[in-house]
Amino acid sequence: MLPDSYTLAAIEKACKGKKHVKLTVGYVFGDNMTVKVFNENGEIENQNYIYEIASVTKTFTASLLAKYIHDGNKLQNERD
After folding, report:
1. Where are the beta strands (DSSP E) in the chain?
2. Three-state SS for 72?
3. Of 1, 4, 11, 51, whose CB has the highest number of CB atoms within 10 Å?
4. Which helix (H) or strand (E) covers residue 37, if one does?
5. In the prediction, which pLDDT does 35 show?
């Protein structure tokens, strides 16, 4: 399965013109999980890449937490 056109456009924008980029994206649809890898030319074969994550996990975790708090508040406001 592929994501919607909005997500694919965002992936293309993030990769376009960047020679050394490899963007790995995981999708979860119900009980199915798919991992796809993209470079400047689009989707490429999914190999077992090893990424050095360093401190990016702190930013990623904080961003997800902020999103869930925001979405939770939005849902709470809709119920009131």
Report:
1. 23-29, 32-39, 42-44
2. helix
3. 11
4. strand 32-39
5. 86
Q: Which pLDDT value is given to residue 1?
A: 62
Q: Which two tokens stand for residue 77?
A: 């406001």
- Over the stretch 29-78, which tens digit does the pLDDT of each residue have? 888 888 888 999 988 888 777 777 777 788 888 888 888 888 876 655 55
Query: What's the one-letter identity of residue 66?
Result: A
Question: 36 CB contacts (<8 Å, ≥6 apart)?
Answer: 2, 24, 25, 27, 43, 46
24 forms beta bridges with 37
SS3 23: strand
Joined tokens for residue 13: 């924008």
Report yes or no: 16 and 40 within 8 Å, Cβ to Cβ: yes
